[in-house]
Amino acid sequence: MKKNILVIPGDGIGPEVTTWGKAALQQIAKDYGHDFSFDEALMGHIAIEQTGNPLPDETLEKGRKSDAILFGAVGHAMYDNDPSLKIRPEQGLLKIRKELGLYANLRPILLFDELLQASSIKPEILRGTDILFFRELTGDVYFGEKQRSDDRNTASDLMIYHRYEVERIAHKAYKAAQQRSKKVCSVDKANVLESSRLWRETIQEIAKQYPDVKTTHMFIDNAAMQLIKDPKQFDVVLTANLFGDILTDEASQIAGSMGMLASASVGDGTGFFEPIHGSAHDIAGKNLANPLASVLSAALMLEISFGLKEEAQTLVKAVDKVLKEGYRTKDIADKQTASDKVLGTREMGDLVLKYLAK
Ligand code: NAD
Ligand code: IPM
Ligand code: MN
């Protein structure tokens, strides 16, 4: 199979981890006789530095023309510490999501048995958890009108949804649920927000078209609590952009670390694959980042964009083998982990490739 893949490493630990997602794709291509070609493009702080624009036109053009995109992360402490800066790395990510019509962000909570001890939640609560989040990605308060008063003392972000935006992601979530445990839990704040009432009303309508799927509705505050109390109750969780952002960082603790969670953003065209984590300034450049979320994002690309299920499974199994052998990056090491098995980013990436080649 011939495919053109665009790699956008971004900032902070982005380049450190994306190296390994890309290397895993190259190894798979070699082992299975595929012809994957790679191009690279700028986004985020690095793009601002080099072009003045967090999403240069060239990156967007390359993105549109590619068969899939592997992305790292964007962000820099400079902007986090100075809210007054007008041009910001994250604008690049938001714009490419909008421009490529990536309205559905799939975030699977993939739980490796070997990491049950790495989580701060009790193993018996976690074991058997299998959740697939559908986070709406191109609407909500992220994209509503933003305002700041002339005296700078008042600010607002409009939380807005259109019915079609809820419908299209709902169909994707219900179709996925039909292939899984046939449960959709829609999470909103319909007891307070009008946009959530539109959300709930729309889901209630769509649910009628999928009578084989059991639909429940939960308020976001309760969902945040239930996720820790009893994560096994969930199958597909369908939610809005901001709620999904927050809930999935929380859910990363079910899988053991932010460094384990991959995601796929899909919609109208080219698929976009990225870890859910950010540029992690606190560990950037120290060979401490866990590269497995990038490797698992590459697996999602193989499966979702290219339909290469076996190749995707091979990648996931290589990660599983490395973990079974007891190797850990610092973020997923527990007290029992032998110190010689705690690896840096590069060593962990190398080991995945070695296990892949076996
Ligand atoms: P973050 O996800 O970067 O980091 C949160 C915590 O998780 C940190 O302690 C970090 O060290 C740890 N962590 C994250 N990824 C890890 C990995 N692969 N291995 C080991 N540990 C890991 O979130 P933050 O600190 O809130 O944000 C930092 C910057 O990243 C900000 O500028 C933010 O805007 C940006 N950000 C970007 C994205 C993205 O590009 N998709 C996502 C989230 C945050
Ligand atoms: C994510 C990030 C982004 C988001 C930021 C960096 C714009 O947190 O991908 O989860 O909020 O969507
Ligand atoms: Mn996030």
From TrEMBL:
Co-factor remark: Binds 1 Mg(2+) or Mn(2+) ion per subunit.
Keywords: Amino-acid biosynthesis, Branched-chain amino acid biosynthesis, Cytoplasm, Leucine biosynthesis, Magnesium, Manganese, Metal-binding, NAD, Oxidoreductase
Binding-site list for Mg(2+): D221, D245, D249
Domain called Isopropylmalate dehydrogenase-like: residue spans: 4-352
EC top class, as a word: oxidoreductase
Record EC number: 1.1.1.85
Pfam families linked to this entry: Iso_dh
Site for Important for catalysis, residues: Y142, K189
The keyword Ribonucleoprotein belongs to this UniProt entry's keyword annotation: no
Metabolic or biological pathway: Amino-acid biosynthesis; L-leucine biosynthesis; L-leucine from 3-methyl-2-oxobutanoate: step 3/4
Gene3D superfamilies assigned: Isopropylmalate Dehydrogenase
The protein's required cofactors: Mn(2+); Mg(2+)
Sequence positions that bind substrate: R97, R107, R135, D221
Keyword Cytoplasm in annotation: yes
Catalytic reaction annotation: (2R,3S)-3-isopropylmalate + NAD(+) = 4-methyl-2-oxopentanoate + CO2 + NADH
Molecular functions (GO terms): 3-isopropylmalate dehydrogenase activity
Cell compartment(s), UniProt: Cytoplasm
InterPro entries membership: IsoCit/isopropylmalate_DH_CS (IPR019818), IsoPropMal-DH-like_dom (IPR024084), Isopropylmalate_DH (IPR004429)
Family: Belongs to the isocitrate and isopropylmalate dehydrogenases family. LeuB type 1 subfamily.
Function, in words: Catalyzes the oxidation of 3-carboxy-2-hydroxy-4-methylpentanoate (3-isopropylmalate) to 3-carboxy-4-methyl-2-oxopentanoate. The product decarboxylates to 4-methyl-2 oxopentanoate.
Subunit details: Homodimer.
Protein name listed in UniProt: 3-isopropylmalate dehydrogenase
Species this chain originates from: Pedobacter montanisoli
